[in-house]
Design goal:
single chain, about 290 residues, mainly alpha, about 70% helix
């Protein structure tokens, strides 16, 4: 005798509960996204990202730009264990530098993400790497070694591709007028422009080395950025509070500089968070 069992479809209440549980498990990542918005805004206002662009323009050339961006993002991503932080700081700066060279923005974004994500995957400080190892019930460094056969060859192929594009001259052409206009817009609109403004990036590395958790670490670096904005750029405490929500806004008269600097704030991350919450909620229901 064969007995057939009928599995009843879940009720709407059960589906909603599953969706709520999935969203609850992702709340830490959502808060990290919010606070990365604060980090970007503070780094813009204090002059860290503009300083990266200002001094980077004096170093980079189209012949080495894409492979160097890919390699630097990988190194910093490995040190920090956060692809979010790398793309939100170095990524923004490199996109602006590359624009002055006429390099395709898609290629720049690819180089940034190739390096940042590779560094993040191999970093023992990465929460996603630790989560993956814990979910698979394996050792952290066993998990990292297992990725050598897949992630590392993909990174090498991408790096060689960027080298080929740069050396053959297919990446872009250097435009001195764009460079000069961007440099002037940055120097004219910031009260203080010096390599000292790069110190908040060093603070990120120190925080990663001492292994401060992601949320307190991002908040601490954001606070350092706000402190630098008050000390070096003449911002007030009230300005910093507004910036954490709405981001940094300035009108320089240079369209490229405005695109570079008018960004950041928790408000800028809400679209991404909204889409993530919807996707995660429906995934939990499924």
């Amino acid at each position: 005798i064969v007995r057939l069992s009928v599995v009843s479809a879940p009720s709407v209440k059960e589906m909603l509960a599953a969706g709520y549980d999935a969203v609850a498990q992702s709340l830490e990542a959502m808060f990290i996204l919010l606070f990365v918005g604060c980090l970007v805004g503070s780094f813009e206002w204090c002059g860290t990202i503009p300083a990266l662009v200002f001094y980077g323009l004096k170093i980079f050339t189209p012949a080495i730009f894409l492979p160097l961006v890919c390699l630097l993002c990988a190194i910093v991503g490995l040190s920090l264990g956060s692809s979010y932080t790398v793309t939100a700081t170095l990524g923004i700066a490199f996109m602006s530098i590359g624009a002055t060279m006429g390099i395709n923005p898609a290629l720049i974004a690819g180089a940034v993400l190739s390096g940042a994500c590779t560094g993040d995957k191999f970093s023992p400080l990465s929460d996603s790497t630790n989560l993956s190892a814990a979910s698979a019930q394996t050792g952290l460094f066993d998990h990292v070694r297992a990725m050598v056969a897949t992630t590392f060859p993909a990174f090498v192929l991408a790096f060689l591709g960027y080298c080929a594009l740069s050396l053959t001259g297919n990446a872009g052409e250097y435009d001195p007028e764009l460079v000069e206009g961007l440099e002037n817009a940055i120097s004219d609109n910031f009260a203080f422009m010096s390599p000292v403004l790069l110190l908040p990036i060093l603070a990120i590395i120190v925080i990663a080395v001492v292994q401060i958790p992601a949320i307190p670490g991002v908040l601490l670096v954001s606070a350092i950025g706000c402190l630098f904005a008050v000390i070096f750029q003449g911002a007030s405490f009230a300005d910093c509070i507004c910036m954490t929500h709405y981001g940094f806004e300035i009108e320089t008269g240079n369209e490229l500089a405005d695109k570079l600097m008018n960004r950041g704030g928790m408000d800028s991350m809400l679209w991404t968070i909204n889409m993530a919450l919807i996707a995660i909620g429906f995934g939990g229901m499924y």
